[in-house]
Structure prediction request, 389 residues.
Amino acid sequence: MSTNTYKSGTTTLIGIEQPETLRAPEIEKGVGCDFDNYLLVPDNTLDERIATAKAKLGKDVVILGHHYQRDEVVKFADFRGDSLKLSQQAAEVDGKYIVFCGVHFMAESADILRREHQVVVLPDLNAGCSMADMADIGQVEACWSELGGVTDTSKIIPVTYMNSTAAIKSFTGEQGGSVCTSSNAAAVMRWAFARGEKVLFLPDEHLGRNTGYRMGIPLDEMIVWNPFEELGGNTEEQIRKAKVILWKGYCSVHQRFTVEHVARVRKENPGIRVIVHPECRFEVAQAADEIGSTEGIIKAIKASPAGSQWAVGTEIHLVNRLSKELKDHKVMSLDRSVCVCTTMFRITPVHLLWALENLAAGKIVNRISVDERTRKFARVALDRMLALR
Ligand code: 13P
Ligand code: SF4
Prediction:
């Protein structure tokens, strides 16, 4: 296995810290990168070596870990959280190196928010997000121009979910919009409607619809924009009438939860409460008792009385952790088949060790670097969100 490059919007994420003179084909091959040797590290030595490398780096390193990370990785995180909490941490932490155990849009956001002297590292560059990749900047620009042929785009405020490329965040910032996460989507939508008449919500159809509906926007005033169809598959009249234009993107993990799962779990466990992530489909969110971001799910379950039973519609690593840690509660997955985010799962203890030992040896690997032009307006969009706290 070799470390490779990952193209994300306008950002090239490079597998190794390379001298300016290194040519692209050499970068592709991962010259100078000895990740392969790490595949032979015995499992029973990983923890100790990670701890030693981390201790050697001391205050120079800060490890951020998303709730969907494996236990073996997240236990080394200095800060654990949902996308919002981790972006706030990224903007505030002091370490020289921010090692992001999450997926690339999170690391990109950290790179946009970091201070001048800091460097962001993603231990495996293949840790992407299929939803974020569903909105390509070319498609979004084409959508904006098509919308401009039908309605006044100065009255449309783009809102992009954190799960989007830096290029989409930059577009959003430049067009007067903001980033949101699953824990502040309603606040950001309210902010947007105070400034415009319509919202273009990118790239998660479900988060946009679930949020809009809870704010009182009728379903027939929220249309879906399919980037592969003319006018997104809508008539001019539908576009003019719409309050929210939802990009046709989704999370393959959260799409799997169904209303049948909700009915079954209630039948088999009388009294159980169902809580789902807002990336779930509208019908599932409607059928659930509660909706919450990863942080919101944790808080809701922890705040419930001892003995409470919960069926949780989100990624399995978080559900299993809650089930193990909250001994006074009964926590299970809403879906019996395992819902893993395969890209979050790509960050293994071996990747973390490789990144940390290289940093401790003075070599930066898997640096995430957003170009200056993209960073400028992406930062504007992120700052608008962070100012809403
Ligand atoms: P949170 O913002 O709730 O952490 O969600 C991020 C994510 O990718 C969920 O799929
Ligand atoms: Fe992306 Fe879904 Fe994984 Fe979240 S769970 S990182 S939205 S693929």
